[in-house]
UniProtKB/TrEMBL annotation:
It comes from the Bacteria. This is Aminotransferase. It comes from Allobranchiibius huperziae. Keywords: Aminotransferase, Transferase. PANTHER family: AMINO ACID AMINOTRANSFERASE, L-GLUTAMINE--4-(METHYLSULFANYL)-2-OXOBUTANOATE AMINOTRANSFERASE. Residues 28-366 form the Aminotransferase class I/classII large domain.
Length: 369
């Protein structure tokens, strides 16, 4: 891999729109990134403070009580009863894991990594860092006789908020087992499910008993507390699933010093058990989402997918850069859909991660002619 094979950092191309939006007399409403703005729950902050005395090196694999807390969370929230604590790995945020998983699995030139057609850019970056070839597709049929070594799923999806149903996940798992493919499912928005007819308290997981029959071999679910608990600044996340795969990853991560700091491991446990805080945060997003969605639809936009997660995947059925310019003139900054692949060319991604005051300003601006 050479640095030159990495894509340009896409946000640089938003500079002009940002300048336009920032010139609005009421100030910019920045809905272009999914960075939480509400406070980190108090029990999580307290756990971090309580763990401030940390003279020794932490465990790469996480402390046993952290691994047990993750397994218990899967049983309580994800309909996945058999998660083995030995199959749990804390990660330094999930972006780190997404970017390095192909490398940690030993993939390289000639290996294919399957990624979603409309996707968070780091799946592609991770394949490139390993020297492997990213192939964007939402259908396993695309791979024909040359299956990928690793297939990334992302449910709920960023940017489009699409939720993969149980039956779809089960089909992918059956296909992956037949072709010896590792499936990594990035589920970091799972708690933020807006569907009325949901199958459980969260969106379905790849480790859901109804998806994999309790057999986690070849499977990894990737989760982060950044979004559900407003602690993106902590870098607190984990992967869970096949203990043999996790063991391989731990061996490499030990050599590479990829260790979640001990105070963050303690905060992670607190975040996983602070269910009331997650429910309260969800109510805040419901209110923001409802008003923003109504304002966009009232202004002639169509919202596609967006069944879960922190974004509205919105279109005016015209090139996304024209829509971005139109929003910027109203002082609103959003992310163009082409950041996420050519299939996003007519959409923009509008984040719910702004204060109530800024969301109200966006709603007001959208409703004025
Ligand atoms: C789909 C997806 N995966 C992973 C991440 C990374 O989250 P973090 O590194 O904060 O855990 C993000 C962040 O926006 C995301 O949208």
């Amino acid at each position: 891999m050479s640095i030159a094979s990495l894509p340009d950092f896409p946000w640089d191309s938003l500079a002009q729109a940002k300048a336009t939006a920032s010139a609005h007399p009421g100030g910019v409403v920045d809905l272009s990134v999914g960075t939480p703005v509400d406070p980190t729950p108090e029990p999580v902050q307290q756990a971090l403070r309580d763990a401030a005395d940390a003279p020794g090196y932490p465990q790469v694999w996480g402390t046993p009580d952290l691994r047990e807390a993750v397994a218990a969370w899967f049983a309580a929230r994800r309909h996945a009863t058999g998660v083995d604590p030995d199959g749990v790995l804390p990660t330094i945020g999930s972006k780190e894991f997404v970017a390095w998983l192909p490398t940690l699995l030993g993939l390289g030139a000639g290996d294919v990594v399957g990624i979603p057609r409309i996707a968070y850019p780091t799946y592609d970056v991770g394949a490139r860092l390993a020297g492997a070839t990213p192939v964007a597709s939402d259908s396993t049929l695309t791979f024909g006789p040359m299956p990928p070594k690793l297939l990334w799923l992302n449910t709920p999806g960023n940017p489009d908020g699409r939720v993969l149903p149980i039956e779809h996940l089960a089909k992918v798992v059956a296909w992956a087992r037949e072709h010896d493919v590792v499936v990594a499912s990035d589920e970091c928005y799972a708690e933020l499910d807006w569907r009325d007819d949901a199958e459980g308290p969260t969106t379905p997981s790849i480790l859901d008993d109804r998806v994999c029959g309790g057999d986690h071999s070849g499977l990894l679910a990737v989760y982060s507390l950044s979004k559900q608990s407003n602690l993106a600044g902590y870098r607190a996340a984990f992967a869970a699933g096949d203990p043999r795969l996790v063991d391989r990853l731990v061996q490499v991560r030990k050599h590479a010093g990829m260790i979640v700091p001990w105070p963050i491991q303690r905060a992670l446990i607190a975040g996983l058990t602070a269910h009331d805080a997650v429910a309260a945060q969800k109510r805040v997003y419901v209110a923001r989402r409802t008003s923003l969605r109504a304002a966009l639809e009232g202004a002639g936009w169509r919202i596609d997918s967006s069944e879960a997660g922190l974004y509205l995947w919105a279109t005016q059925d015209r090139p996304c850069r024209d829509s971005i310019q139109g929003l910027a003139e109203r002082g609103i900054l959003a992310a163009p859909g082409d950041f996420y692949g050519a299939a996003g060319e007519q959409h923009v991604r509008i984040a719910l991660t702004a204060t109530d005051e800024r969301i109200a300003a966006a709603v007001q601006r959208l409703s004025v002619g």
